[in-house]
Amino acid sequence: MSEETSTIPQSAATESAVLDRFVSDMLKERGVDSLPKEVQDQMHEDLMARVNDRINAAVLAAMSPTHVEEFEKVVDSGNVEAIQKFCSDHVPGIDEIVAHELILLKSSYLSA
């Protein structure tokens, strides 16, 4: 894969749907489907926040300190596609970092 094609970000909607499905699957594996819908929804929301926090922390940790200030400006813009492109361009192995964090979180969550 060329450098050019590896920096094209997934669409925000697709990425969000993948994370949503990941969280839903973890909750099913945890056996929460017998709980009231409101409880399930709150658990889903809480777990999505944990997923996002964990990914964000890992991405920032992998980012060069020289890019953090510029990244903050991109984040402040609120443009999800620009954020994803910045991460693809400035965080080596972004896909592997995200996958690794999801694996660790799933292992931790399901063993608790």
Task: Give structural notes.
The structure is a single chain. Helix content is 81%, strand content 0%. It is an all-alpha fold and 112 residues long. The protein has a domain at 10-63 and 93-111. The protein is elongated.
Average pLDDT works out at 87
Task: State the helix count.
Answer: 6
- Kindly estimate the percentage of residues that lie in beta strands according to DSSP: under 5%
Q: Helical proportion?
A: over 70%
Tell me the span between the first and last alpha carbons: 39 Å
Number of strands: 0
What Rg do the Cα atoms give?
16 Å
Structural class, by secondary structure, is mainly alpha
Backbone shape: elongated
Low-confidence stretches: 1-9
Keywords:
112 residues; disordered N terminus; 81% helix; mainly alpha
Secondary structure elements and their pairing?
Blueprint: H1 3-6, H2 12-30, H3 37-62, H4 65-77, H5 80-90, H6 94-111
